[in-house]
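Go through this chain.

——
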Amino acid sequence: MTRKLLTAALAAALLAGTGWAPLAPAPVAAQAAEAAEVTEMTMGDPEAPVEVIEYASYTCPHCATFHENVLPRLKEDYVDTGKVHFIYREVYFDKYGMWASMLARCGGEERFFGITELIYDAQSSWSRAGSDVAVADELRRIGRLAGLGEEQVEACLSDADKLRALVAWYQENATEHGIQATPSFVIDGETYSNMSYADFSEILDEKLGEE
């Protein structure tokens, strides 16, 4: 899915009036981004011979399909076997994708991928709920399903400093790797567009020197 990536200014405009974590002016946001650290969400051995970075948006249907059909096989065949270190990085096309990202990170590193799976599984429902309030309520429901407390969810979704840091982080990453669409993948420094498991496996096997 190719869409315009959010700038910090556009992110502020989209969030204005929603009551959820409005962004500060640019100089303040930059200072907050420097102060707040963004945790990389990863699976597998950091010392694995091949590194795969996925760039994805929670509102991207192709990303949901990848997480349903391709990622489980990659995890079983390459991540769990110590061949691949997998890194997931969020891309923000819209405010709903930002909210979903804040929710996914609410459970910390140990629960991130589980919550991410719930978000993608229900994407067609929450992302099309029809209004900001309805989308927010659907995301809260997913948070409850994941075992997050109501106050915990509200605190995560209202964490303005974290949001500023995340926006700055994704912009830097997307610029570095030339990300124009989601899902995109960076395999040992080389950027690829969305692909099937067969194509993914062929590239990984070549990187690993396997036939």
In short: The CA atoms of residues 90 and 101 lie 7 Å apart. The beta strands are 41-43, 50-56, 84-90, 184-187, 190-192. DSSP finds eleven helices and five strands in the chain.
